[in-house]
Structure formats: C-alpha cells, structure tokens
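so my prof wants the structure for this chain in the tokens format not the other one, which i didnt know existed until like an hour ago. anyway here's the sequence
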Amino acid sequence: MEFRNTLSFAQKLDAEDALAGYRQAFHFPKVEGKEVIYFTGNSLGLQPKSAQKFVDDIMADWKDMAVEGHFYAEKPWWDYHERLAAPLAKVVGARVEEITVMNTLTVNLHLLMVSFYRPTKKRFKILCEEKAFPSDQYMFQSQARFHGLDPEDAIVEVKKREGEHFWRTEDVVAQIEALGEALALVLIGGVNYYNGQVFDMETITKAGRAEGAFVGWDLAHAAGNVELKLHDWGADFAAWCSYKYMNSGPGNASGVFINKRHLGQKHVPRFEGWWGTKKETRFLMKPEFEPMENADAWQISNPPVLALAPYLASLQMFEEVGMEALIAKRIKIVSYLEFVLREIDKEVKGSFEIITPNDRGCQLSVFLHGQGKSIFHYLMKHGVVVDWREPNVIRLAPAPFYSTFEDMYRFGQILKKGINET
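here's what i got, hopefully its the right format
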C-alpha cells in the first residue's frame, strides 16, 4: 500500500480498520478536554471499561459472602487464576498446562531462577543483553552473589556492534557457542525496552539449549505485542508483566510459562507454598508437598483476585480479537507511523532518527538530534503522551486495540510544530 501523510488518508485507514470499535472499550486521559494521543502502552496500557465490573463483582461477593466467596462466588476465588491460563496460552504460544499467573514479574523471574539457574563449578555463566532492563540486571547480580559468585565473572552481556543501535542474532549465537559448557542460563528480554527490537527467540533458544543451557525469556514488552511460540520454540521458561500491552492495571500480576518437559518432575527445585499443592488434597493440610501437575506447582500463595480481575477483563478482548488480527493491525499502524515520521523528517531536516530495526513490535524509538527533553515536554503539553529514555530517546508505541491512524497523522503535525518551535 502506498501511504500518504494526509488527514483524509489516515481517516480512510481508520474506516477500513476492523478493530476500530475497540477504541471505545478503553478510558482515555484528556488534555484540555480532548482525548490524548496515547503512545505509552509499552509502559502502562489504558484501562478497559469492562475492568470496573470485574472488580466490582469481587467486591460485591466479598461484601455478601465473605469467606464463602472462595467457593461460591460466580467466579470462585480459590481457582480464579485458572481462568486466565487458556487465553494466555494463545497469546504466548503455549499449552494451557504450561501457564500460570502469580506475583509480579521480577519476583517470578527470581523464583524461576531457583529452578533454572543451578550453577556448578564448571557451568555458571548467565548470558543477557547489554544494558538489560535495570530490574533484570539487579536480579542477575543478586542471584550470582546469592550463589557465592562474582557478578562480573558470572554475567556475560551480548553487545551491539560499534555504531549500531541493535543486536545481531549471529552475535548472540556466537557468544552462546563461545561460552559452551560454561553457560548455565540464557535470559534475555524478548523485546528490548529501549530500542524496541524483537530478538530472534526461536534461533537463540535453539542455540542455548544445544549448548546444554537453560533458556528463558523476559517478555515484559513482548506479551500481547508480538507473535510468540514458546512451546514450539522449546524455551524452558518465560515470564511477563500484564500492565503494558495487556492492559491489566499498574504493577499488576505476572504471567509465567514453564515448558511441559519440566512439569511433574520432582527433581526440579523450586520454592514451594500451599497453592502449589494438589487441589484435591490442599485442604487436608498435609505436611508433605504434593505438586500440581501443571505450572501451578510454582504457585506459592492464594491468588490476588482483585488484581487478577482487570487482567481477566482484558483477556476477554484478546480472546475475541485474537493475536493474528492484533498483529496485522500493529504491522500496518507502526508502518504508517514510520512513514509519517520519515515524511516529517524531510521537512525538519534530520532532527531525529528511528533507531528501532525492522524486527520490531509496536514500538518505534526515536533518537533526537539537538532538541533535548524540550520536545518531550512540548508533546506532553499538547496532548501526546510519550515516553522518555535517556540520553535522548522518545519511545512511541501505538497499541492496536486503541490507537488510530488519525492519531499517527495528528502526532506528526504536532511533532513538526514542536521541533520548529523548541
């Protein structure tokens, strides 16, 4: 399709968009009485209007039934988390038994490292990407120290090539092969938070497992954004937050994938708690731990149902639409955003560059040349909610559920004006 940077063309694309109606299913912040152009679904997704009812239902059951809500609510609380497994399995390309929802993202990654980072004198290296998200860096460092290792010796970072803004798959694979029998764990962010790059998870997983290492993925910026086939790719584990592209609310619960080959294996170590025991015997209060046969064996505490309720509301929309349709719109709207940016760049003469490679999801990262943070403040003041990352990057993430092509056009006009005025 040949794009045009005009309002009428953008409106034509919106008229042809099969998902256009879902915009009305979300609450938008407003600036001067107008709905904002929202580009930060990669940080916090908008609130689904249906989320309130899901929470209110639990509050009403709590008021009317108190403790009996665990078993007699319309959606009983004791197995509330199980309702999320099937729709999530479709989102991340897993089998239902490989999915559970619990805790928050970094907590879950720590718990998963109990199972999948078991360093020995010979095999103890952790491979991650250069400048991984800080929470992951802190996690790696603390895990290494917990095992009595020097983080500088245990952690290996795959670097970008000099002068490039992205990682090359062949460099990741080469580093895996070079570490060989010293490699214990590969754990990388499936979509990089800074430049928006989607890693070749299938190839990297295959390479890591071929060297005898466990391979896991931090999917904070990938779940609900890009195509995932965790089971088929053979990843050992993965975890993701739910509040970015999955619109579940700030700081909300984390999803977990554990490959089926690790389920029901008594030799796999993990930190255990009451909710990981078999449902059939859980309330017998037996002293012996009898693990669930699915990923719920990694559950520790009973599910935080008030937190899970908005997640379930959002997942109903994912079920209705399906990842294939979301990805199709994502590809089109991000391509249009890129086109608009390049058209604006011709007019403002090289004021910025897009540093996100073609292997991408919803996000385009734009490196500003000269404007500094003033353009960020200008955009926010004029109703464009964007995300700033040092030293000079604005992240733009048009989420397909609620972003429009007209948003992309209008943003381009505001950006051009802002660059000319700041």
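also thought this was worth mentioning. The mean pLDDT is 96.
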